[in-house]
Hints:
Blueprint (H helix, E strand, L loop, with lengths): L1 H8 L2 H10 L1 H6 L1 E6 L5 E7 L13 H6 L4 H10 L3 E12 L6 E7 L2 H11 L8 E8 L4 E13 L6
Antiparallel strand pairs: 1-2, 2-4, 3-6, 4-5, 5-6
Amino acid sequence: MMSRLRKWISSPDGIRKIINVYGPYLGAGVKVTHIAPDYRSASVEMTLRWYNTNYVGTHFGGSLYSMVDPMYMLLLMNRLGKDYIVWDKSASIEFIKPGSGRVSAHFEVTDERLEEIRAATAGGDKYLPAWDVDIVNDKGELVARVNKVLYVRRKRDKGR
Length: 160
């Protein structure tokens, strides 16, 4: 029974369900709507509610950022596997227009990007890949753009 539970918890669907009840996401009203079975992509959304608005009645900037915060790290950790260390390194957000209604973001780690990261870290060096993530409203209009930088390195052999 425990092995089935562990397998479910570590599956994309299990992770999606757990994240959706994780305090910061639940409190901000963020919902992970999709994580691909191979961790190639993910999607999140957030509907404007009384508890995630700012002083002027639009999406709170912290909630906009939180909806994208862990996603590239999560996807990359699972695509690269246990031989790699993956951390969020830095981020910045540019607010383009006020967000109202439902906003969403999509994340993708392509095979080409994955191979670039593997090649850059093959010798044990750290690598700092960056992604831009667009947060858009239901009309497809850009609300904010987040730049995420990750820290990636192959784990060192214990024998060295």
